[in-house]
Amino acid sequence: MEVLGGVRYDAVFLDVDGTMLWMDLDLEGYVEDLAPYAAGELTPHRAARPVQEALREYIQENVRYRTVEELNGFKHANARRTARLLGLDAPPEVLLESLERRLSFNLFPETVEVLEELRKTGAGLYVVSNWDILLEDVLEEMGILGYFDGLIVSALVGAEKPDRRIFREALRVSRTDPRRAVHVGNDPVADVRGAAACGIDAVLVDRSGEVEAPEAVATIPDLGRLPELVGS
């Protein structure tokens, strides 16, 4: 598959959040679910910071939990801390059920078409993502799991991008020389710098038009140009 500079790519690595899909939390709905358990008035404004802190902790710490049991234990502990911060007299299950109901994953409009075009190139497609052990379930629910030849997930590898270990695992799983692989993602450090440090070409997806990544071999506003860029 011919690309920039005449390099032939045998594998395309793709980030998930911010690259193929985005996450959205219905904060007002979340507050509505939990208001009956609050000692005082619970508003979206009051809930915003504790909920953001809880999500940030989850994102930062989930890589440590490599079994469903361990992850569920962490989720319950996280929910209990959130309940305390919000002043809620509610069991963790209530918060977790509300979060599952109010948190949605949404594919970017071009994602499926681009994946279909990339499959036609003959290159292997692999997810390389900082995510918990349940990423496979998410991708299956979104209807895109079948496009991929493998998933390299931080929580299963035990290392997060930009750590070289996760990119080396992607190369091992795909049986690809770094010079024959390209990584595509939206983070200039985790995706671009991390891949470049392993000798892998990196393409930055900059949907805002405000991100700089000098190590990237190309910058694109969305995934639409990717098949052309990598030589479909």
From TrEMBL:
InterPro entries: HAD-like_sf, HAD-SF_hydro_IA, HAD_sf, PGP-like_dom2. It comes from the Bacteria. GO terms for molecular function: hydrolase activity. Keywords: Hydrolase. PANTHER family: HALOACID DEHALOGENASE-LIKE HYDROLASE (HAD) SUPERFAMILY PROTEIN, PTHR46649. This is HAD family hydrolase. It comes from Rubrobacter taiwanensis.
